Amino acid sequence: MADTLDYPALLERIAADVAALVGSGTPAEYIPALASVDPHRFGMAVAGLDGTVHGVGDWEVPFSTQSVTKVFALALALAEGGDSLWERVGREPSGNPFNSLVQLEYENGIPRNPFINAGALVVTDRLQSLTGDASSELLGFLREESRNPELSFDAEVAASEQEHGDRNAAVAHFMASYGNIDNPVPALLEHYFWQCSIEMSCADLARAGLFLARHGLRSDGSRLLTRSEAKQINAVMLTCGTYDAAGEFAYRVGLPGKSGVGGGIIAVVPGQCTLAVWSPGLDAQGNSVAGVAALDRFTTLTGLSVF
Ligand code: GLU
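^ thats the input. predicted complex w/ glutamic acid below
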């Protein structure tokens, strides 16, 4: 069905449908670089399995990917290190805010899932042990899969994350006290903040995420993940990828998705395409208001979903 869709017309229609929502919600305010972004931005891109990308609005404008990178770090950590990662991080929704500490004490320093900050710190720690340079490894992977060698870290965002990083530092030290962090916490945090700062456009993200739609195959045809691992990551995205609104996202959109506080969301139609959307205004749970609405329109208009 996806092959016969007129993507340019579809994207124009979706942009028109959600136009009234663009600018609603509130951009993330915890660091100046995010707080100062124009809330009226909106972009959306769809990448087909062959890498062809269509887009609308600000689909080629780079933005701060933030937690969207957590899905790529997870894929790399699993690809390089295998299943033993799951001894250190769970696969259940947390029902708590993404930066919460409370559950960690009850659950002996094992984070609920790889997409809350605690879980992502464990993933980056694993990637650091496996590669010796987690953030560069991730950036290199994203450059290759997006076919955009210009992708880079945003040094200002990384520095701001560090400056406002007490909560992440607390989470990392707390897990280290349970023996669930292998690298020195300051070095781990640095890689994590660089990871959060990576700038990408919707076009970059949609292309970079295609390995999840291709059941684990990279853009050069080589295998990153087994079919089963790709399914597992998609499943964790569906259940845990959109903060503590994953149930609502599944209900409305019906696709695996991962959001970030920069206002970006990536979503996957396995076997068909990858979508990326960006609009900085966030709802109370931290998901882009216009972004979720646009993905909702996409699956409603096309009937493409995992259900
Ligand atoms: N840099 C943010 C943090 O770790 C990421 C937040 C997000 O996008 O969820 O607090």
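The chain has a mean pLDDT of 96.
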